[in-house]
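User: Batch of two.

Assistant: Item 1 of 2:
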Amino acid sequence: MKQYELIAFDMDGTLLDSQQKISQPTIQAIKDAAKKGKKVVLSTGRALTETIRYAEFLPEIRYGILGSATLLYDYKEKKILDRKIIEKEVVKGIVEVAKKYDIMPFAISMGKGNIQKDQLEVISKYHMGPFKQFYEVTAKHYDNIVEELLSDDSQQFEKINLYATTPEERKLVKSELEKFQIEMVEAEETGLEITPYMANKGQGLKNLSAILNIPLEQTIAVGDSDNDETIIKAAGLGIAMGNANERIKSIAGAVVADNNSNGCKEAIEKYLLQ
């Protein structure tokens, strides 16, 4: 059986259970993997500031493919290994769309999330209610994010998420942005994740593997949703969670238990440490 040296976990819906926690059996499996010299990596659409508490709690996780691979980060050295930003022309286009629709922008710059205060108060309207308390702590708040931040030419953004009120509205927003050379992935119920061209989790895994001198065929990627597609396809072994959508399951090489049933522990013990 093939030997694997690195495993990359998506966070929401994968490594984290429905209570936003890493289960104790999974924590122990991660520690066991690290003791054997295996690399355990976060692969998430979250900003750096939204992941640090997990890496501090579990130092066996040293590296992060963050913001949908717009930032590669070494938690131990507190060092950015690679960063990609959205072109200014695209940011301007996003601003124009944001002004036309009732959408909530969430912009990531230098690993930190930014959000508008009044929209945070009614975040459930944009189908992101479970993240309210999290963004209250980890994100910077603005009175008018479009005018104060997104329209500032001196700012650089790794990723901009747009949350609509309905899937139909998201579709309209997406169609208006298709003229730009960017990566767009539908996320959550009404969200649209926008990153620079060729900035996706699959490319992030390739870049991190090169930095760590680990052949791509010796990597495992575990995920549950559409923004995990590229990394599941890129890894030596792509694994879908039991709670993943059917399309992700169909492209994965294996399926494990769901995120509330220690699926990540299963991935480590059955495939990384076999």
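Item 2 of 2:
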Amino acid sequence: DIRKGINWKWLNSLIRAQRFGRLLSMRLVAGHRDGLTPARYILEDSIHLQVHGRRRILLISPEYSFKGMYPYPVAHPYDGYSMVDLDDVNYGQTPAFAAVRGQSFILEPGDLLYIPRGWWRHEQGLSKEHISLDLRFSPGKRARDRHVAVLPVSRDIEERLART
């Protein structure tokens, strides 16, 4: 039972202490060994709780959004994802990716990872099966990374141009 495996009282105190906004969604994520979620960004703060199995998450700062991550355009079906295949990078097509740096985390049951809004995440299952919860929050009163503003502004410009 997932509910019993999470210290909800502690989690709620963390959310309040860190000044997150209101909870927007809570998603149950399940997968298998080598299951991959390609690099993408999400414009909400999130907390990733590993419940069962192991999962690797690579985080990349939004400062690389337009300096190597090559995001798909807003109107594209892969909006929010990177054009770069991080498992088989074609540097001829995406040369700026060579400068991109990130931090890799291996999550085990009971681990929690805060993922700031706008940060790129590339996820891979390491266990035969894995389960996690992904909680997403409104902005709240947390300090913002100055590089995050570029993504929403770029998205807004693209959306406005598409309407003209």
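The radius of gyration is 17 Å.
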